[in-house]
Amino acid sequence: MSNKLKSFFDIKFLKFILVGIINTLVGTGLQFLFYNLFGWNVWISSVLGYIIGSVVSYFLNKHFTFKNKEKGFKPILRFALNIAVCYTLAYFIAVPLVGWICTSNGWTMFGWSVKKFSDNLSMAVGACLFVAFNYIGQRFFAFREKD
């Protein structure tokens, strides 16, 4: 494995994964709860889940994963911008793509309508895309190390 790849997949990556598990339990758990229990639409459910999960993520990643000592609003603003960009990319790819695939093929499970299955699957696919985008954004933008 090259040195660049080793430095990318280091202890920070492992800590990010651990924090991500906690964050996923909070944010994605709430997202599915809002959608399936409260009947809110996919966009409201996912945005609220990500906002709440992002607050947890900010504190854990800032202090535990990246040990970022920077004070003030700059790291908060970079983190918020990163979350917004990653969410937008992930869900504006996942929701229409999964919706189109499920609708075109009539895919469903669990006795759900195609729409309900598609919405749930798009939230899961969006979460996976978000994790990939978010690690890169947090490591190299939001909590980047100063040279």
Structure explained in plain terms:
- The protein has five helices and no strands.
- The chain has helices at 3-8, 11-36, 42-65, 74-105, 114-142.
- The protein has 147 residues and is mainly α.
Briefly note the structural class of the backbone.
mainly alpha
Order of helices and strands: HHHHH
Residue stretches low in confidence (pLDDT < 50, at least 5 long) are: none
- Approximate shape: elongated
How far apart the termini lie comes to: 24 Å
User: Approximately how much helix is present in the residues?
Assistant: over 70%
Strands, total number: 0
Largest sheet: none
Proportion of residues in extended strands = under 5%
Radius of gyration: 17 Å
Number of helices: 5
Mean pLDDT: 90
Keywords:
147 residues, mainly alpha, 5 helices, 0% strand
List the helices and strands and how they pair.
Blueprint: H1 3-8, H2 11-36, H3 42-65, H4 74-105, H5 114-142
